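Protocol step 4 of 6: structure prediction from sequence.
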Amino acid sequence: MELYGYPLKAKFTYPKPPPTKILPATSTVAASYKNRIPYQPESISLPWMPNAYYKAAALNPTLAPLSESFPGLPPTKIIPFVSERPNGVFTRHTLDDWHRSNMTNYKESETTRHNAERLRADLNRTIKDVYQQAKRTQGESTKNLGERVNDIEYWKSELCLELDAMIRETNSLTDMQKRLERALADTEGPFQVAHKCLLNREKRMGIDLVHDDVEKQLITEIKIIRSVRERLQQCLNTVNAQLMCNKEARQELEKDLADKQMGHHIDNKCYQLKNTSRGIHYYRGVERIDATISVPETWARFTDNNIFRSQSQRATSAKLRASTESILMGTADEMWRQFSKVNDAFTSRITEIANAKSKIQTHLAKTRQEIFQIETKIQVIQKTIKDKEVQLKVAQTRLDERTRRPNVELCRDTAQIRLVQEVNEINETLRNLHQCLRASEDMLQMLVRSKAVLEHDLVIKNNSLFIDQERCMGMRKTYPSTVQILGYV
């Protein structure tokens, strides 16, 4: 028979004990399981079986009636149970067993407490070691982050100083560039004046068309101005190239400085993080991600190279500004000396010109009439071009609007094909009209020149005197000053 209240799990673990007539003592049964680890399924959250065992063992066992144990026999045939002890006492264990069980429980309790105390001491020591190691490791990381922040601040200050110096140098070179552009633009006036003087003197007729000293000086002046323009243009190209180099160096500095500022912000934020800070989370596997692309040596060398490159460009820019200033001074002085020579030659030639008159009237009226008609025709062509441009705008606007059709609505339909053809046709028409306009304008210029020649033929000598004295010398009075040539205004 099975014992009432026997633990269910232990029943399958140990051999089945021999049947007894009486229930065993609770302490004896409990002692038989003292070194066993119970099986605890994860899906059951109830305590282990000993609790149930003690509850079951606390029940008072009862025996079934003898008549039910021996079916088929009458009560008179059943042998009565006679107690071997007086007063009906059933003895389960001896007193020595009871004392021995108590001593065993005491020793086991002391051993368990000793092991628990030793485990607690080990746990305290382990926790203390873990805390100290974590504090030491975190302190080293914080110290390294602080050193990193200091390094970034140092290079940031160096970058800021170099960037300010580069900005000042770039601004100075930009001012020099503007002066060069103004000086180059100011040479266009003297060049046009000298060129127009030569063209005006070409209008002389007959004996007045002589290769005199004025013409020689004007040709020399044109050559000098061209040489000056070439030198200024070459210098301007060099300045523009240097400005591009300065801007590239500046962009590198600004990009590096921006990266330093972002890195400083991030590292400073990391430096100030504590165990009690907000915003700290778990990032599983982040320690296995290595997104670094540099080491401290290459990191510092990169910024140092940027600063060195900027310093080199600044030195080159300063030398270029000095050489450009020298070129401006030299070219202005050279042009001014030749200008004075041409004016002296004109003054001498004007005193030698005598009055001469001769008129020509052939084709003058027709030329003027043709000029009027060509100008009228030019206006008509211009109006036609404007009308066609409006039509072209309409067609191109339609095409542009149709590009915003959604999805399958972007159909190459007949309207689309016709609009494209319309744009091509209008463009072709505009090209033809522009060619006609240019041809008309060229013809107009030729007619104006022909008219000037005819008018020049009317009075040869007076015209020569008028050209040299009124036109040429009148234009040369507006020659720019040295300050303008140098580009200061």
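Step 5 (inspection) to follow. The domain at 165-277+294-400+414-486 is CATH 1.20.250 (Colicin Ia; domain 1).
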